[in-house]
Design goal:
This protein has 294 residues and is of the alpha+beta class. The protein has 10 helices and 7 strands. It has a 4-stranded antiparallel sheet with strand order 2-3-1-4. A 3-stranded antiparallel sheet has the order 5-7-6. β6 and β7 form a beta hairpin. α4 runs parallel beside α8. 30% of the residues are buried.
Length: 294
């Protein structure tokens, strides 16, 4: 089957992660958690029925929430686009948020997080983000924390969905073997009556510049040590964003970058050293690091 025989659809809700100081920390990961629940049941389908219906169409639906957006991605045969998009619309518009599914996902997410927190690299990245970005919502892991995950209530999940999953901040992107008139008819059929009042404006907290400091996390049983340097940086809208991306690529963005050549190739101190420039709506973070023997 050629790539031209497949249609890929994305629905995106923008700017819905909690961004209010202590509330942001208390509900860290709520957007990610809510996105994961979309495939676990709607008013018309339970999780098993959703999986069966998607599989019967030879389709695939993925959900993902990052700090600035939630993406619901559908890939299917173009000939099955209509029923597949109808399922996607059901997930986006009518999630059930059943209590048993909330608890099941809570256990799974916490288990995965506990495993991640046994890795020095994960601990170093989380510590660097908190040190650089402080009270900003961007400072916490997108999947939540051991403290925040047990706190989520169904009411808070429903409230976030009502506030964020709305036509006013959604983009529908379709690519594949389908004409523009066919695409408009398809989308109008399942999303045409989708309405919602505009939510109140959200305040956004930008991180204050941190003071220079050293952070040591003692993990005596770890086989390696992770060493990171970090600082707040430019947002995605900055005029010098492209220059920043090029500079980061030269510094530590690939195997031939300066950091990897110096640390791994010339000195053999690590399996790899890298840097990253992460940018979001209101802020960004620069990080450089490597893992090596203790």
């Amino acid at each position: 089957m050629s790539s031209s025989d497949r249609a890929s659809v994305t629905e995106r809700g923008v700017s819905h992660q909690e961004r209010r100081g202590d509330r942001s920390s208390r509900l860290a990961g709520l957007a990610h958690f809510t996105a994961g629940l979309l495939k676990r049941g709607t008013g018309a389908r339970n999780a098993r029925k959703i999986a069966e219906d998607i599989e019967a169409l030879g389709a695939k639906i993925d959900t993902e929430a990052t700090w600035d957006a939630t993406t619901v991605k559908l890939t299917t045969l173009s000939s099955n686009a209509a029923p597949a998009v109808a399922i996607l619309a059901d997930l986006v518009r009518n999630p059930a948020f059943a209590k048993e599914e909330i608890e099941r996902q809570r256990r799974e997410t916490l288990d995965n997080l506990v495993l991640d927190l046994q890795q020095p690299g994960t601990i170093a990245r989380y510590s660097a983000r908190r040190a650089a970005l402080g009270a900003s919502a961007y400072a916490h892991p997108e999947s939540g924390t051991p403290a925040s995950l047990p706190r989520f209530t169904r009411e808070e999940i429903v409230a976030l969905h009502d506030r964020a999953y709305r036509p006013g901040n959604a983009l529908f992107i379709l690519a594949g073997n389908i004409t523009a008139p066919e695409a408009f008819i398809l989308v109008e059929k399942v999303f045409g009556d989708w309405t919602a009042p505009e939510p109140p404006a959200e305040s956004v907290i930008s991180p204050a510049p941190p003071s220079a400091r050293h952070i040591l996390v003692d993990m005596p049983n770890a086989g390696q040590a992770a060493v990171y340097l970090t600082a707040p940086c430019i947002p995605r809208t900055a005029d010098d964003w492209f220059a920043g991306k090029v500079a980061n690529a030269l510094l530590g963005g690939g195997y031939s970058s300066w950091l990897n050549q110096e640390v791994r190739v010339k000195r053999g101190l690590s399996y790899g050293a890298a840097s990253r420039l992460s940018t979001w709506r209101t802020t960004g973070q620069f990080t450089a690091g490597a893992q090596t023997k203790k």
